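Section 5: illustrative case.
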């Protein structure tokens, strides 16, 4: 079974406190799904080609199905409300090889 990944680029953050509040909720919760943060919000990002130097997060799960289930869970939907409209993200759920 292939691993699953959340790959998240933060395009717009009007209030960093909002992101920190979301992180405080979601990071401990990820353990329930076996999620492991591989790239943290404080990691250095170097943009190449058409990329943007934006805060990036990568979370690894044991399978794509688990990564998808975690994102679609009711608990996560409630946590997403903490971000509100002042944060714009490029959120992808990808299957590893």
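Designed sequence:
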């Amino acid at each position: 079974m292939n691993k699953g990944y959340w790959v998240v680029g933060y395009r717009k953050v009007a209030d960093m406190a909002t992101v920190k509040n979301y992180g405080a909720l979601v990071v401990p919760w990820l353990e329930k799904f076996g999620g492991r943060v591989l790239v943290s919000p404080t990691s250095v990002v170097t943009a190449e080609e058409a990329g943007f130097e934006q805060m990036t997060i990568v979370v690894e799960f044991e399978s794509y199905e688990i990564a998808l289930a975690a994102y679609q869970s009711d608990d996560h939907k409630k946590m997403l409300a903490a971000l509100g409209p002042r944060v714009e993200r490029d959120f992808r759920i990808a299957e590893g090889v």
